[in-house]
Backbone:
C-alpha cells in the first residue's frame, strides 16, 4: 500500500507519531496530511509536512521544533528509512515521515 | 490538549501543589493540618518545574512543563486544576534572535489590579508576560532585548549545568509597574516602568566566584522574596550568603554571617512569613568543596530568624538526626497563610515535610514521590 500519492495539485504523506506526541493527534499513531505540490520536480519538504501536521495537531510542532526553526535535541526525523535533522529535506513521493523521540535512563 | 484528574477538596484546610520531575501532585489537609491526602498524578512523566495557583481568582492554575525530549510549554486551568489546556503560544524567544527557551522555570501571577496577567521566567534567562491568563505569551522586550542583557547574564551556554535561570519574579503589591527579578546567574534587577528598563540591584552582595568580588552584576541569587507583610523589604538566599534589603535603600545587608559556621549560609530556598516581615526560614545546604547541596553532615534542619536575620534558630524536631542527605530546591519550600503559619518543604528524594507551628516541629506528610521541584500553596 502506498501512503503517498498525487491527487491533482496535492500529495499526501503519512506521518508516524511517537507516543509522547499522541496527545496532540487524538491518540493516533499516524496522521495523513495533504501537501500542495507546486511542480512535479518540487516535492514537499519536511518543514511543509510538519506545517500540515500542525494544522491537524495544534501545538505539536513547537514541542519538536524550537522558535528558531531547528529540530529540538532528542528528536529525530526519518524520511523513509533515512534520518535527517534538516527540515528542508525533500519528501519524495511514496515516502513516509517518522518522528522519533529518544529517551534514556530515568 | 485537555487533561483531567480529580482535585482534592480542601475546604477549610491547606492545599499544596507539588511539582516534580515526573508530574504534578496535590496534597490537601484537614482544617487542623494534621491529616493529608495525596492526589495525582497529573502530567505523569512531564518534568514540571513550577505549578502556581492564582490568588486573585482562586480558580486558575498554571503549570510549566516539558518532557525529556519535547520542548517547553505551559498548561493552564481555569477550573481549579481539574482540566488543563495547553497554551496556544508558550513562552518563546523572538524568531531570529538565535535564542531558544529550554524550559519555563518560574511562574508568577501579576498585580491584583491586572487579572489575567502572568509573568514567566525561563532558562536561559528570559522574561515573558501573558495578559490572557497564560493562553498566549510575549517576551518582555525591555528585558529580553535590553542592550545590556548579555553582559548581565552571560551567554546562554555559560550557565550552570541545569541551565541559567530567570526566577523570583516579584511584583510590588502597591504598584504593578514596579518589578524585581533574580537571575542565576546575573543578579537581582529592578524595573520601575513595567519592565521597559532594568537596573542592577546587587550592592552589598558578594560574588566571590567572580574576578571582581564586588561587581555591579553577575551575582548568583538563588531565591529572592518580597515580604508580604512589608513590601519595602526583600530577602535573598544567594550563592554567597543570605541578605536583607530595606527599600528605598539599595545596599543589601549580609544576614548570613550570623549563621553557625559549621552550617554556613548556602542554600537555595527562602521563605518569608505571610504577615511578619521579620520572620523568615531558610534550609542550609552544603556549599563546600564541589557543592554537594545536601543537608550539612546529613543532618537536615530549617533555620528561622524572628528578627530579620540578626539571629537564627536551628529547627529540626521531627527530622531525621543522621544520614539524611536532603536537597531542597529553591522553589520547594513555602508557607501557608494560617495562624500559626504552616511551613512546607519538599526534597529531591520525594518527601514532603510540613510544620504546623512555624517550624518548631515537623512531620513527613508525603513520601515516595518523584524528585520535588516546587511546592506552592493553592
Residues:
Amino acid at each position: 500500500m502506498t501512503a503517498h500519492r498525487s491527487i491533482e495539485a496535492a500529495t499526501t504523506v503519512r506521518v508516524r507519531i511517537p507516543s509522547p506526541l499522541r496527545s496532540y493527534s487524538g491518540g493516533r499513531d499516524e496522521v495523513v496530511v495533504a501537501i500542495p505540490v507546486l511542480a512535479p520536480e518540487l516535492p514537499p519538504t519536511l518543514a511543509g509536512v510538519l506545517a500540515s501536521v500542525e494544522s491537524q495537531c495544534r501545538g505539536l510542532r513547537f514541542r519538536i521544533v524550537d522558535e528558531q526553526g531547528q529540530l529540538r535535541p532528542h528528536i529525530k526525523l526519518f524520511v523513509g528509512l533515512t534520518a535527517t535533522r534538516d527540515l528542508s529535506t525533500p519528501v519524495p513521493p511514496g515516502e513516509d515521515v517518522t518522528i522519533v523521540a529518544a529517551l534514556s535512563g530515568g | 490538549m485537555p487533561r483531567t484528574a480529580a482535585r482534592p477538596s480542601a475546604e477549610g484546610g491547606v492545599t499544596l501543589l507539588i511539582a516534580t520531575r515526573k508530574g504534578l501532585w496535590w496534597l490537601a489537609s484537614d482544617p487542623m493540618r494534621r491529616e493529608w491526602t495525596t492526589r495525582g498524578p497529573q502530567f505523569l512523566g512531564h518534568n514540571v518545574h513550577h505549578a502556581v495557583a492564582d490568588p486573585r481568582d482562586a480558580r486558575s492554575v498554571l503549570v510549566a512543563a516539558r518532557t525529556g525530549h519535547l520542548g517547553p510549554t505551559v498548561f493552564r486551568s481555569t477550573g481549579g486544576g481539574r482540566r488543563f489546556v495547553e497554551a496556544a503560544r508558550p513562552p518563546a524567544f523572538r524568531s531570529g534572535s538565535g535564542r531558544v527557551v529550554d524550559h519555563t522555570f518560574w511562574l508568577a501571577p501579576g498585580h491584583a489590579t491586572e487579572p489575567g496577567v502572568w509573568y514567566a521566567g525561563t532558562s536561559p534567562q528570559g522574561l515573558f508576560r501573558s495578559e490572557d491568563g497564560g493562553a498566549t505569551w510575549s517576551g518582555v522586550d525591555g528585558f529580553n532585548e535590553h542592550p545590556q542583557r548579555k553582559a548581565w547574564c552571560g551567554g546562554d551556554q555559560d550557565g550552570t549545568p541545569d541551565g541559567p535561570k530567570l526566577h523570583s519574579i516579584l511584583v510590588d503589591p502597591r504598584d504593578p509597574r514596579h518589578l524585581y527579578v533574580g537571575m542565576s546567574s546575573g543578579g537581582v534587577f529592578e524595573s520601575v516602568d513595567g519592565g521597559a528598563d532594568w537596573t542592577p540591584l546587587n550592592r552589598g552582595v558578594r560574588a566571590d566566584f567572580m574576578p571582581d568580588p564586588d561587581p555591579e552584576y553577575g551575582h548568583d541569587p538563588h531565591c529572592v522574596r518580597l515580604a508580604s507583610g512589608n513590601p519595602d523589604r526583600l530577602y535573598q538566599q544567594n550563592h554567597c550568603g543570605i541578605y536583607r534589603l530595606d527599600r528605598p535603600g539599595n545596599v543589601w545587608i549580609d544576614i548570613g554571617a550570623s549563621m553557625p559556621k559549621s552550617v554556613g549560609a548556602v542554600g537555595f530556598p527562602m521563605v518569608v512569613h505571610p504577615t511578619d516581615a521579620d520572620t523568615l526560614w531558610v534550609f542550609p545546604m552544603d556549599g563546600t568543596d564541589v557543592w554537594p547541596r545536601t543537608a550539612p553532615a546529613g543532618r537536615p534542619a530549617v533555620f528561622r530568624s524572628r528578627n530579620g536575620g540578626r539571629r537564627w534558630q536551628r529547627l529540626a524536631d521531627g527530622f531525621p538526626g543522621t544520614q539524611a542527605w536532603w536537597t531542597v530546591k529553591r522553589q520547594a519550600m513555602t508557607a501557608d497563610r494560617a495562624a500559626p503559619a504552616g511551613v512546607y518543604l519538599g526534597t529531591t528524594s520525594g518527601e514532603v515535610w510540613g510544620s504546623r507551628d512555624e517550624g518548631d516541629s515537623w512531620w513527613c506528610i508525603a513520601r515516595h514521590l518523584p524528585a520535588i521541584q516546587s511546592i506552592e500553596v493553592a
